[in-house]
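To the wet lab folks,

You asked to see what we're planning to order before we commit. Fair enough. Below is the target structure as tokens, and below that is the sequence we designed to fit it. If anything looks off to you, flag it before the synthesis order goes out.
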């Protein structure tokens, strides 16, 4: 029933236009219906018109991707998970701004899938969101994505289906800048992930447990100080029937509750600290770190004990350089930073915010002794920022303009019922047009994220890079702390249907998601 409705929507009809479906089905032309605006659907010819306006170098980059089940080793343990091309670390796709990227995805999974290209201002029909921009790709089928890459930067790709990203269906996408102004000797793509699949259960098990809310945990609707876990139970707080839910996870930086799920491991390019990746370099080299947080429910605080990083980009776009001791990345966020290599082993540490454990890799000049992970600090302090607190480089700052429309997105719900939503609505991907936020091409749109919940949310918009506050960083994912508001603006310059959602995999799946819908 829902699927049928969506098929009609693909043909370019608004919900109320379904009655005229028979007439319009052959034309692919949206039919305005009384009381409902006509939407600019992914199949609308205007999508191709905008694509043709994007710069094109004439170069095509090709990358085949095979989604499938495979055996991986995590911390010496063999497990079965789902990923691309049979590896925990999927191919890092590299291209240059203006190139055309073509990816043939073959679906070797038993489930349908699709690939979303996170952060890219790409043509809407290639955005990879099931039931919104394409039909899911059935098991055994394939799909060829093809689109121009308009902006340089550090991006990534991942499945948007169900809990698939919580397995290993994600990879890095690096768009190099033909006019690169930074100078560095090499770059290092660092993909961070919280890992439980095949160790403590599956992401679907976690979702099932969380969906029951905190009632299973003994009705702890709120977490008064006195009821927080005792030190002897650690921060895992596993009550009866609670295997995955994390109680008492706290981060002052994130304004309180840091996460919902406990993870046995945190991976740095697919490795636990004992097997950590080592990047060879020379003393004095400048390394560009391209850090990507691919986690489901964990923010990472990234830094190097005793050494500062120079932050240069947030979510792919340049920022005014800032030297910090550490930077915090919410799920979905990326940060580029420069590091000057010192003699010996330099640990690049990613500490899960408010959770036990660590992820790390080393830069090594080939001298000295690799420190054991256990002796490394478990705190990164000093000047600590997140990408949303940086300032845009003037070259990418949006011009001052009065917004043509403002949408308020109140983040709602909580742990008690695990009923996350936007403006009290729980998104259903099978009925994506129920509570859309409408925009028109050419408008300056202001979006006010107001967090009514007790927890932070990394809010992500597809297909656009907004600007945080006046003069703030250009980003596609921004941390919104509990009881706080973050206002962003963007230029509606990419017609189509675009999701906006929390990048916590569990919050999104439970409904903290909505649609920005271009209307005619
Ligand atoms: Cu990283 Cu809706 O996506
Ligand atoms: Cu959230």
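Sequence we intend to order:
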């Amino acid at each position: 029933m829902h699927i049928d409705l969506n098929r009609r929507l693909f043909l370019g009809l608004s919900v109320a236009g379904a009655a005229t479906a028979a007439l319009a089905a052959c034309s692919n032309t949206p039919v305005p219906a009384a009381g409902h605006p006509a939407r600019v659907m992914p199949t609308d010819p205007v999508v191709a018109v905008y694509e043709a306006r994007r710069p094109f170098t004439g170069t095509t980059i090709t990358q085949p991707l095979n989604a499938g089940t495979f055996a991986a080793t995590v911390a010496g343990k063999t497990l079965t998970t789902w990923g691309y091309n049979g590896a925990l670390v999927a191919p890092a796709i590299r291209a240059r701004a203006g190139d055309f990227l073509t990816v043939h995805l073959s679906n070797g999974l038993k489930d349908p899938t699709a690939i979303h290209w996170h952060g890219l201002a790409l043509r809407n029909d290639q955005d990879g969101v099931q039931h919104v921009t394409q039909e899911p790709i059935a098991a055994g089928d394939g799909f060829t994505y093809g689109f121009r890459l308009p902006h340089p930067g550090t991006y990534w790709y991942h499945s948007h289906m169900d809990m698939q990203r919580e397995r290993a269906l994600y990879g890095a996408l690096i768009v190099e800048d033909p006019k690169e102004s930074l100078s560095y000797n090499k770059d290092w793509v660092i993909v961070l992930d919280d890992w439980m699949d095949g160790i403590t259960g599956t992401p679907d098990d976690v979702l099932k447990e969380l969906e029951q809310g905190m009632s299973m945990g003994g009705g702890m609707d709120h977490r008064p100080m006195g009821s927080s876990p005792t030190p002897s139970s650690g921060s895992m707080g596993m009550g009866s029937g609670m295997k995955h839910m994390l109680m008492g996870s706290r981060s002052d930086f994130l304004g309180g509750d840091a996460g919902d799920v406990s993870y046995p491991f945190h991976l740095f390019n697919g490795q636990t600290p004992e097997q950590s990746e080592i990047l060879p370099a020379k003393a004095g080299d400048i390394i560009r770190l391209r850090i990507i947080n691919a986690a489901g429910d964990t923010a990472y605080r990234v830094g190097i004990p005793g050494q500062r990083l120079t932050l240069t980009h947030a979510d792919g776009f340049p920022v005014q350089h800032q030297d910090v001791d550490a930077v915090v990345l919410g799920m979905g966020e990326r940060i580029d930073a420069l590091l000057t290599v010192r003699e010996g082993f330099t640990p690049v540490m990613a500490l899960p915010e408010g959770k036990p454990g660590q992820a790390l890799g080393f830069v090594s000049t080939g001298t000295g002794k690799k420190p054991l992970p256990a002796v490394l600090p478990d705190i990164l302090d000093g000047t600590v920022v997140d990408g949303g607190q940086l300032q845009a480089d003037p070259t990418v700052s949006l011009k001052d303009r009065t917004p043509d429309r403002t949408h308020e997105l109140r983040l709602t719900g909580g742990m008690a019922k695990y009923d996350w939503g936007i403006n009290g609505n729980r998104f259903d991907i099978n009925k994506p047009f129920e509570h859309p936020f409408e925009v028109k091409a050419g408008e300056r749109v202001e979006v006010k994220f107001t967090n009514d919940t007790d927890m932070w949310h990394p809010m992500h918009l597809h297909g656009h890079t907004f600007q945080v506050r006046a003069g703030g960083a250009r980003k596609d994912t921004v941390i919104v702390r509990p009881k706080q508001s973050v206002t962003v603006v963007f230029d509606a310059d990419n017609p189509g249907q675009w999701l906006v959602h929390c990048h916590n995999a569990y919050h999104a799946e439970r409904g903290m998601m909505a649609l920005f819908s271009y209307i005619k």
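Structural context that might help your review: The chain has a mean pLDDT of 90. Residues 397-518 form a domain with the Immunoglobulin-like fold (CATH 2.60.40.420).

Thanks,
Computational group
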